[in-house]
Amino acid sequence: MAQIQHQPDAQRFVLLSDDEIVGELDYRTLGNTLDITHTRIDPQHRGKGLARLLVDAAIQEAGKNGLALTASCDYAEQILAREGRLSQ
């Protein structure tokens, strides 16, 4: 079972499977905006919707803190734009 861990000091979320990091999402906060800068899933774990779990965690974190969302990461940008969550 995959588990997401937020590491706010490092400005990232990590995805753990059996206590091993199999994915990560990096972000930066710019004023009142959370900018997703990078998502990565280990090749053997791709195609399972895991990167989406990381983006969802970032969306929840932004909402909890009243932050707008942007993405420098192409993958995250596509999701945010498709769902109308991408700030201009």
Key words describing this protein structure:
globular, 27% helix, 5-stranded mixed beta sheet, alpha+beta, 88 residues, 5 strands
Q: What do these coordinates show?
A:
Strand 1 (2-7) and strand 2 form a beta hairpin. The longest helix is centred in the middle third of the chain and has 15 residues, at 50-64. A 5-stranded mixed sheet has the order 1-2-3-4-5, with helices on one face. It has helices spanning 50-64, 74-82; strands at residues 2-7, 12-17, 20-30, 33-41, 68-71. Helix content is 27%, strand content 41%. The termini are far apart. With 88 residues, the protein is an alpha+beta fold.
* Order of adjacent strands in the largest pleated sheet: 1-2-3-4-5
Query: Which percent band covers the strand fraction?
Result: 35-45%
How far apart the termini lie comes to 35 Å
Q: What is the structural class?
A: alpha+beta
Total beta strand runs = 5
The secondary-structure element order is EEEEHEH
Question: Number of DSSP helices?
Answer: 2
What would the average pLDDT be, to the nearest integer?
95
Helix content: 25-40%
Overall shape: it is globular
Radius of gyration: 12 Å
Are there runs of 5+ residues with pLDDT below 50, and where? none
The largest sheet is: 5 strands, mixed
In brief, what are we looking at here?
The chain has helices at residues 50-64, 74-82; strands at 2-7, 12-17, 20-30, 33-41, 68-71. The protein is an alpha+beta fold and 88 residues long. The chain has a 5-stranded mixed β-sheet, with helices on one face.
Topology:
Layout: E1 2-7, E2 12-17, E3 20-30, E4 33-41, H1 50-64, E5 68-71, H2 74-82
Parallel strand pairs: 4-5
Antiparallel strand pairs: 1-2, 2-3, 3-4
